[in-house]
Each structure stands twice: as C-alpha cells, then as structure tokens.
Design goal:
Layout lengths: L1 H16 L4 H14 L12 E3 L3 E4 L7 E7 L5 H5 L1 H15 L3 E7 L4 H10 L6 E3 L4 H6 L9 E5 L4 E4 L6 H11 L16 E3 L3 E7 L5 E9 L7 E6 L4 E4 L10 E8 L5 E11 L6 E9 L1
Parallel strand pairs: 3-4, 4-5, 9-15
Antiparallel strand pairs: 1-2, 1-5, 3-6, 6-7, 8-10, 10-13, 11-14, 12-13, 14-15
Helix pairs in contact: 1-2, 1-7
Pfam families: DUF1573
Protein name: DUF1573 domain-containing protein
Length: 293
C-alpha cells in the first residue's frame, strides 16, 4: 500500500509541475489522484485493425500491463497521437518486457479518411480501434485535459498512472519503473551542468508546397566546462521530427538539431521542439513556423 501511495504522490507531482499555472497544477494533481486505482471499463465488440484494413482482434487483450491511448477528434489527430514516437518506444518495451505489455489505441476521429491516411503514411502497423461512436469515452468520462488521456493499467484494468509519456520524459520514466517493478522511483542522474548558446530560437520556413518536406537546423553550442548530454527531444506534433547525434558534446563544440516538417494538409503552422538536456535553464523550447500551401 505504501508503494502505491508513493507512485500516486510522485506521479501527481510530475504532472502538476509540467504546467506553469498554480491553479492548473492543483487541478491536474487532483485528477491524477482521483483516477489512480480506478477501473477503466470496456464494452464488448471493439474491433482493432491494422492500417484500417485487417481485423486483428475484437476483445481487450489480457496481459500484465496495458497502456491505453485515447484520442478524440479535437485538434490535429496526428499531433495528438505522435505515432513515430510511440513506434520507437513500443519497440523498446517489447524488446525487454517479454510481451507483458499491451498497447490499446482508441481513436475517435472527426474524419475517418484522414485518420486512415495518417496511419498508412506513418506505416503505423499497430492494432488501432477506430471508435466512431466515441463509446469508450462515453463509458468512462475521461478527463477534459487531453494530456490525461493516456493510462497505464494493470491486469484488472485499474489505473496505475496517467499522462502521455510522449509529452514528458519523466512520465515515460515513471511508466517504465512501474512496469518493470523497480522498488524505488529512480531519481534523475546527478549530472554536472553545462551552459548552452542557441543560434536561433525561432525559424520561419516561409511558404512552400505542403506535399513536400521542409527542413531547417538549430545549432546548440556547448559554452560550459562539462559535456553536453541531450536526454530527449520532444515535438508538439507528429508531423515534426528531429535528427541529432546522441554522442555527448565536448565544450566549445556544436550540436546540430535537424528539424523536418511534413504537413498533413495545407495549413499555417507554429510548432514547438522541446530539448531536455543537462544545461542550465533546460528544457529549451524552440519554434518553427510557416505556411504549407
């Protein structure tokens, strides 16, 4: 019981510190405490398909742990889902968990055609339930905050943790700690801090053909005395990806972040790239904008 309380308290703290506003902090912490250890209800008849084509199964898998990802029709579905990041993390978990974790993707799309095109374009060959009637949300009444639409469940579908690990590396770390039964929440490594100079914080990509990928680069210079180590780089949208070297950066050397943007449709965009590292004032929030015509 003490261990459960420990996880609840630490998780609530992680979620609340993610926001800057005190009122929002309290609201998120309260939601986390309310949902932790509650049971997610499932109806029968859910159909999971790969790329919207082949029916894989029509019942909820029975496994030691489940990660439930729910996305509604509000906003950009691709931005909310972040499929490339999920694919990479699922591959990592599958390689070390001996299939003890199931991933349940429920999507209530505004436009089913757009969703299927997204799944095919991202080659997201993972079972997804296209919940046209939004029945899962109607049954459970999920929190209003979209950041709280991802749940780590136990074998009895009880909530162990809440939050989207694709938006916060600390949430991802907490999920891993629970899944692999670590007795203590691992604390952040006591890394020596360095200083970073960034050549530009915002880049305007201008107007371009929305069907073509657009790229740009941010240069981070290590102006401190210690090695620069990047822990994670998170984008605010699944249509934005970042390439960079994972090798620690020596003092007075540069790290180049190559940002690639591939529009899903014609639109004016403004996206954020968040860099977590051992530099002072981390994380850094970089911006790209433009008009994909």
């Amino acid at each position: 019981m003490l261990k459960v309380i420990l996880y609840i308290n630490i998780f609530a703290a992680l979620m609340s510190f993610h926001s800057c506003q005190k009122k929002v902090n309290v609201e998120i912490a309260n939601v986390v405490k309310e949902w932790t250890n509650s049971e997610i209800k499932f109806d029968s008849g859910y159909v999971f398909t790969r790329l919207g084509k082949d029916s894989i199964y029509n019942s909820i898998p029975k496994s030691g742990y489940k990660i439930l990802v729910y996305t509604d029709s509000i906003g950009c579905v691709g931005c909310n889902l972040r499929l490339p990041q999920w694919k990479e993390w699922m591959k990592q978990i599958d390689s070390i968990s001996d299939n003890k974790v199931s991933f349940l993707f429920f999507v209530h799309p505004k436009d089913e055609t757009d969703l299927l095109l997204l799944l095919q374009r991202q080659n997201f060959n993972v079972p997804v339930c296209i919940d046209k009637n939004n029945s899962l949300n109607k049954l459970n009444h999920f929190p209003a905050n979209a950041m709280l639409h991802t749940f780590l469940l136990d074998e009895h579908n009880k909530v162990l943790a809440i939050g989207n690990p694709m938006h916060n590396p600390k949430i991802k770390e907490l999920y891993m700690n629970i899944i692999f039964d670590k007795q203590k929440i691992s604390e952040a490594e006591d890394k020596k801090q360095t200083k970073v100079m960034i050549d530009k914080w915002c880049i305007d990509l201008g107007a371009f053909d929305w069907k073509k990928q657009k790229s740009c680069e941010f240069i981070l210079t290590n102006i401190g005395q210690e090695l620069l180590v990047v822990d994670n780089v998170i984008t605010s949208c699944g249509c934005t990806t970042v390439e960079y070297s994972k090798v620690p950066v020596q003092p007075e050397k540069n790290l180049i972040l190559k940002v690639n943007y591939m529009a899903e449709r014609p639109e004016y965009f403004n996206k954020t790239i968040t860099v977590y590292c051992n530099a002072e004032d981390s994380p850094f929030h970089l911006k790209i904008s433009g008009n994909a015509k």
